[in-house]
């Protein structure tokens, strides 16, 4: 967060200075709108804002020109995605909702510069700016955390804060776009639907090709009352020791090796998917790196998109959270001591079992005794997978080229949290962001059987 002099430190050698702060609203009046948060949304009120960082090279575009294009496109895309310009609210029964009114502030936008020693007050001396795109891309996300707003801000604070904050930081040769989305309002599918729609508008599209489906009550209409204290406890960390975050880049050759090896003896049974194969590879490697005793438990957690699993199915354009956490687990020795097909079979069975009936039962269970999830609820010695290599994050081109890097921020990271993204090289390559206790991460980095043909950053 900013200090009294307006500067933010990310390390001993990098500083971020906020130069402008303003709000962007829909270009046209929307009026007063309300939308009830539903059972799928509510468990995430106790998580932090979901953060994404996209780093772009300017490709000859001027920074001010880039920002102007982004601001204009944002005001236009918010005409459809106006909920992101609103706030959270509660009615007299304690039911949460998204509220929008033309008098609200809209999306918060910050502009910033990097400087080397904190003495580049006007930002005109580009030589003193500390990083270009390639230099930033080689850093751990903890080094870059202040390129993204709302660090450590709970989704519940959307009662008072904007539901979306964007920070545009000037680099020597480009721009870093840090976004913080209120995770009680939207999931990953909706996040990238918004981002791609915004990019299309900036590139000249006259309108959004796939408008968001905004009526959440079509997926679940049950009103759930929550009693939330004014100052809820912060989510608890699952480890008392510092975490390390690393990006493991698996090229298509590595992904094919992992999948082929797992399916080599599968026969006529349902083959393991790419996701199931890579998930098994990650679960086994992390469990081994942790050095757990054979009898100690380990849990694998997946956040499953339920759009096509609910009855009736919801469209891909459904805007909100339509995810549920799916769990499977066993003793650590069973995961590492058996062939990989054992763990893969557990993951495959858990995903297959999460059908419309299972989703309905989960919703009813929550509605009968609603709780706000915290990280510890992911399970003992867990490996939890979020995001998806199906999200076309490297297609988000605002008119000055595709992003050089896409990363998750420092929010909502805990020991065992994994984010999957498609690799920048395309094809079947996948980037795997992993957060682990430092000692386990050191072991994982040296595990050649885990990395295969990939690289670690």
UniProtKB/TrEMBL annotation:
GO terms, biological process: flavonoid biosynthetic process
Gene3D superfamilies (UniProt xref): Chloramphenicol acetyltransferase-like domain
UniProt keyword annotation of Acyltransferase present: yes
Catalytic reaction(s) noted: anthranilate + benzoyl-CoA = N-benzoylanthranilate + CoA
Pathway stated in the Swiss-Prot or TrEMBL entry: Phytoalexin biosynthesis; methoxydianthramide B biosynthesis
Enzyme Commission number, as recorded: 2.3.1.144
Key words, A-Z: Acyltransferase, Flavonoid biosynthesis, Transferase
Pfam families: Transferase (PF02458)
Matches recorded under InterPro entries: CAT-like_dom_sf, Sec_Metabolite_Acyltrans
GO MF annotations in UniProt: anthranilate N-benzoyltransferase activity
Functional summary from the UniProt entry: Catalyzes the formation of N-benzoylanthranilate, in the course of methoxydianthramide B, a phytoalexin. Phytoalexins are produced in response to infection by parasites, and are essential for the expression of disease resistance.
Sequence similarity: Belongs to the plant acyltransferase family.
Descriptive protein name: anthranilate N-benzoyltransferase
